[in-house]
Request: fold
Amino acid sequence: MAGAVGVTEDWRWNDLVAHATLGTGRRGDVPERSLLGIALPGDGSVEDRVLQAAAAGWSARRASLRAHALEAVDARWDAPEEEPLGVAPPDALQLLDGILSGLVATPDRAGLLTRWLTVAGTAGWRISSGHLTEVLDQVPRPLPGEAVAAIGRQGRWLASLGQTRWADALIDVPTAEEQLAIGGRQRRVAAVRLWSVAPDRGHDILAERWGHWSAGVRTDVVTAVGALVRSDDEQWLEAALRDETPRVRHAAARALGRLPDSRRAQRMAERLVRLVHLDPPRRAGSGAERSRAATVTLADVRPSTADLVDATAAPPPVGLTAWWQGQVLSAAPRHAWERLTGSLDATTAVLADHPPLLLAAARAAADQRDAILAERLRPALLAAHEAPVPPGAVLPPGGDRWMERLHDVLALVDGPWSPELTDDVVTWCATHPRPGTALGTMATLLATRAGGVLDQRLAAARPTGLHAQMVASTIDRISLSRSLYRAIDHMIHDRTEP
Reply:
């Protein structure tokens, strides 16, 4: 039986190689003239022979179907190095099958796969040949570096042959440098890989090639690295604000919105002071009480051409003033509000009393990863479900803004959450007018960061009413994901226990 399993694995691997190198899954589709002159190896394992033969056939196909002897194959298409990792044990692979099954919600699958691969690579394991295509099709692009080892030499070799989705997932630093320099098809994942592991090299390539790239390439690169920018990216992003193409300027402005100490943030802070006017209350009061009763007035300011350089999108044909107010409010850093109100406590009070300003400040806190401001705004967001917005009020762009802003603010809180915060979030979802939508929006955060009290709340939940089916389905999704995360974390621990 063991021999039969081995043959099955070999032929499955043979099919994968044929699919990757020749674009088909049938070994008989290799053109006869492509194989002329190829000295097929006669020794070694079946897998090694398949690898070498496929490499030779691929080289012949790349050279207009001219035949090549095996020893003349381009080294880049040669069989990969010896595999240092062993196949994961059956129970770990069974867990991987569960993650790949249709029972796991698509939004949760990438995170679970990344966690499994990271833990497996740490343990010295890799996936089996039978899991290659499914895993490579569903992992994030690019796959985080710490998870790549568990793909194994077979997966890395297949990806190196240029299969679009696989190559994007496993792109390495040398390939990323090449793709970024030429502005190739993989420029987005190449930029993410470089800014994740070698940002200095990314800066060097950008300085050399920026003027040679098309507007589309420049836009893609700036957009791809937007969530990864650091203070040393400010100089080239400020230069991108003066780009001749609007799309590039808008992408650069969005990226700079992540840096609360950037020059753009300082300009937005100055605009906030001119835009927002606090009118003190007429009645007696002092301190926080006085600030809480203050009236906020927004100045009717139209942006100048110089102001529009810092915009994250093109101005609308109508409603220019309201649009610009939203741009400023959603980008002003915390110190601008403190300068305006006098203290962080006063800022919290003013924002809590004015929902449109609260939503805008929450977006700025999330973009700038300002955990201090986010912590102050979180209770006000959890205290309501929707903003009582009067007609014509200024709001930052977005769909269900209140729910989105609460999600963004909660994402800044690392897990495991405290029992109090976990309970507050679950209660907020349960009392929402659309509990299924609310719970679904928070599902990934609850599955990965909520404390142990969540399991008790989910087990005791008895959904009723119009949204009962959707709520029950989301509860099952969260419970399954949490169970899988726990199983992955104990995958190695259980084997090391005496």
Q: What stands out?
A: The longest strand covers residues 276-279. Residues 1-11, 22-40, 60-80, 288-292 have pLDDT under 50 and may be disordered.
